[in-house]
């Protein structure tokens, strides 16, 4: 009976991530595809990918910065829209684009003199304008979650973490399981 239980859990460990991943991809594929009413499955998904890529191309080469700034100013002046637009723009910008924010992994000593450390990312190195001279902003992503905490710590408690940013984020989000 113990062996059967062991095999069952090993099966779960193999199947659950596989099935959930396939289901999420299928769900996204079907949702995007259902926006368009084509008879051939996948055409809507391909059109969406091509459209996003084309908009990126035009924004990079043909649209001037002033047009991008006009859109930014317009969306940044609408009360509720501003909160949503700027939050999403900043979050996407933190991972892609010229102003990546999660590119400085660090080890933070939780309490001076202790051996307890957390992995995070320096998001702002100078907080003098906030009256926090000598402090840095460190983002601490949470494991198995798309959330995190921002902590302000003295610079002395932050040490560079010689690790590639993407691997550090995967390590944190997976709760230390991803090698």
What does this structure look like?
The protein has 179 residues and is of the alpha+beta class. It has three domains: 2-63, no CATH class; 73-100, no CATH class; 105-173, no CATH class. It has five helices and five strands. Helix 1 (2-35) packs across helix 2.
What can be said about this structure in brief?
This protein is an alpha+beta fold. It has three domains: 2-63, no CATH class; 73-100, no CATH class; 105-173, no CATH class. Helix content is 51%, strand content 17%.
Largest sheet: 5 strands, antiparallel
Query: Outline, from the CA principal axes?
Result: flat
Could you give the count of β-strands? 5
Enumerate the spans where pLDDT stays under 50 for 5 or more consecutive residues: none
Count every helix, treating DSSP H or I runs of 4 or more residues as helices: 5
Approximately what portion of the residues adopt beta-strand conformation? 15-25%
**Structural class estimated from helices and strands:** alpha+beta
* Average pLDDT reading: 77
Radius of gyration: 22 Å
Number of domains: 3
Order of helices and strands: HHHHEEEEEH
Distance between the termini: 33 Å
| Share of helical residues | 40-55%
Strand order of the largest sheet: 4-3-2-1-5
Q: How is the topology of this model organized?
A:
Layout: H1 2-35, H2 43-61, H3 65-77, H4 79-95, E1 105-109, E2 117-124, E3 135-141, E4 148-154, E5 158-160, H5 165-173
Antiparallel strand pairs: 1-2, 1-5, 2-3, 3-4
Helix pairs in contact: 1-2
